[in-house]
Write a structure and sequence with these properties.
Layout: H1 2-26, E1 35-38, E2 45-49, E3 58-61, E4 68-74, E5 81-86, E6 94-97, E7 100-104, E8 110-114, E9 116-123, E10 129-137, E11 142-145
Parallel strand pairs: 5-11
Antiparallel strand pairs: 1-2, 1-8, 2-4, 3-4, 5-8, 6-7, 6-9, 9-10
Length: 148
């Protein structure tokens, strides 16, 4: 009987020890990317969010999803972030970063993102892809993209 209880206790202890490790790898969630942007006509920085937190500077609807997008005035992004300067095509295009709507090229000159690789897409008003690729953002540096 003692051997049975010892084996049960060891099994239970192993299950309790390994369960958090297993759940961490199975249920890993990516943190939401914070998108800061600066418009061509201003030196002010803004942050884009799909969650309303306080009084936004303005609100609009994201194309294709019709989800509300809230824009807040922000302090300049931290130095640990890098920037992506977008040289836009002639017509306005929508900017998507890591699957999140960031704004339109007529309102965005550059974005600040956490260092690392980010998926970026630019689409014209009809939804046609103008640019799609992975952009490596380096802290404290500016990377430029210019779709043809």
């Amino acid at each position: 009987m003692t051997r049975f209880l010892r084996a049960t206790a060891i099994t239970l202890l192993a299950a309790l020890t390994l369960a958090p490790v297993a759940s961490a790898s199975i249920f890993h969630h990516h943190e939401k990317v914070v998108i800061y942007y600066q418009s061509p006509s201003s030196t002010t920085w803004y942050a884009v969010s799909t969650v309303k937190e306080g009084a936004p500077v303005y609100t609009y609807t994201a194309p294709a999803t019709n989800a509300p997008v809230y824009v807040y005035q922000e302090a300049p992004p931290p130095p640990a972030m890098g920037q992506v300067k977008i040289i836009a095509p002639a017509q306005p295009a929508t900017v998507w970063i890591d699957g999140e709507f960031a704004g339109t090229t007529d309102n965005i000159m550059k974005v600040a993102l956490e260092a690392g690789s980010h998926d970026m897409q630019l689409k014209d008003t009809a939804g046609n892809l103008l640019f799609s690729g992975s952009v490596n953002v380096v802290a404290g540096q500016t990377t430029q993209i210019q779709p043809q």
